[in-house]
Amino acid sequence: MQVFEIFSSFQGEGRRQGMRCCFLRLAGCNLGCRWCDTPDARAAAAGKELSSADILNRIEAMGTRYLCVTGGEPLLQMDELAPLLRELSARGYAIDIETNGTIPFCLVQPYASISMDVKCPSSGEQSDLTLLADIGSEDSVKYVVADNADLEYAYEQIRSHPVPGAIFISPVYGSDYAQIAETVMEWDLPVRLQLQLHKQIGVK
What we know:
Elements: E1 2-10, E2 20-26, E3 48-49, H1 52-61, E4 66-70, H2 78-90, E5 94-99, E6 113-118, E7 140-145, H3 148-160, E8 166-171, H4 177-185, E9 192-193, H5 197-201
Parallel strand pairs: 2-4, 4-5, 5-6, 6-7, 7-8, 8-9
Antiparallel strand pairs: 1-2, 1-3
Function: Catalyzes the complex heterocyclic radical-mediated conversion of 6-carboxy-5,6,7,8-tetrahydropterin (CPH4) to 7-carboxy-7-deazaguanine (CDG), a step common to the biosynthetic pathways of all 7-deazapurine-containing compounds.
Binding site for Mg(2+): 38
Pfam families: Radical_SAM
């Protein structure tokens, strides 16, 4: 697999926010989002080719049984990723996958919780909203919002595509958090407002 980095930090987002976590960041992405946290990982060539055995050994050396697979877009490497996740799940790992919502994820749902990032207008990209039908109770959906147009878009999609999993509204780092919070407070929707913890405390 093309691996950009493997590192240990705190989970900054999602249902396991604040937990110590091993991150497996794969290289290569099929989008070019304006708010990308890791633009250096977009190109597959930015990664280093590692075997599944090498990746497994590095993950085990981190000493935590919680893994987040991110990117880039990790599901671009589905053929190699799915068997690795199956093995890690069998070894007792809790696994999250962060995906941009453009690639079907059913093959990995038996082994991992999906965190689907639905792209809002300010990102400059679009997700495949039909994939929301596959979000389960252990999965989650995230809307990264920068302005009122993003909030209006998120509101309409949440209303028209209900999911059993958790729904997060995540303000873009440095945006007007108070204004976004005030708007979300007015919604009668089952959402959680969430700031990116890792950016607040200044870690990767």
